[in-house]
Amino acid sequence: MINIYPRANDREAARISRRDLIGLMAVGVAHGIRNPLTVIKGYLQLQDKRAVCCSGESLAIILQELGKIEDFISDIILLAHNKTSKKSPQNLNDIVKKVYPAIQQAAAPNGIAAELVLAERLPLVNLDTAEIEQLIMHLAGNGIEAMGAGGRLTLGTAHEQQEVILYVQDEGRGIPREQKSKIFAPFFTTKATNTGLGLAVSLSILERHQGRITVLSAPGAGSIFKIRFPVGQ
Fold it and tell me: The Histidine kinase domain covers which part of the protein (predicted)?
């Protein structure tokens, strides 16, 4: 089944009540901030019992968890403000290749193979490099989480008529029909360790680039997120 975003009724659907929004934010903050703080607290308590300063391994984990909190706060700020993108003519392949090593590193612990399939020639597109890097990382991270252990994550580019295309394909469990209308909603998540902001931030970035996402997914058959950027805007 194919779903295309943003849709004409997305704005209206996003206008949830103040009470519902507060509830969603409370759950999101609990996942995004409390969970990393729990890990940090545990390591600090362990070091206190040993009466020694943090070891190299413990310090690395603490810094990693603090990084998660920083990323979470950045995502909330990005959603809350009408940010102006700093666009300039870019080759999408260059941006994908820049973030690819980080994606490989994120996929490797779960035995997931990351693959690049890049078009040979792409026209330049007006893009905010930092935002597109963030978009790719969110979509790739979503695919890695969907697969769990093993499988292949494919990042590719293409050129069709007046559009440059980025696609991220995973071999995960797919998206259930009843969840497809919710996946880009802020704080929506089915995972205990996920903040539910990644796809919402991705959609906000895409809207600032006058782009759209096509989602092809079925339970047990994986998912393909295909992002289309207009050429010449």
Answer: 28-233
